[in-house]
Amino acid sequence: MILDKDYENRFEISHNPKTPPETLVKLSKDKNNVIRQGVGCHPSTPPETLAKLANDRNRHVRQQVAKNSNTPPEILKKLADDKNCWTGVSVAMNKNTPAETLKKLAQDEDEVIRWIVAKNYNTPVSLLKKLAEDENKDIKEMAKRNINERKKIK
Question: What is the CATH number of domain 1-97?
């Protein structure tokens, strides 16, 4: 089944929530980047495999790893340095991104990345306060909104 030459079957397997980790490990070596993307975003992909996919030559595969809620923090930290801005956006959105990585991303020249950091509920308040003084109006507003939402919850 796993060595199936039919793209559609491999695609379905890589996106099936019941696919076991050992099958995902095999699929992570597929020549087709869309199959590897499916493995990169799959919740059952083992951390070691996510680490390998974080070095994939295809930016879309790296983005999927950055989006995966099971990607270990140390891999997210590495992906924050990716040259592709959309990988940085995905890291900034991930709930497991460590505070130190969010701090680094909050200084990124890309306004979309800074806005996503301002939106991330796990961004420390001290960092949100700095983003609330960003030169970009939208980033300022998002940081202030995030701070205010936290005050409502307390």
Answer: 1.25.10.10
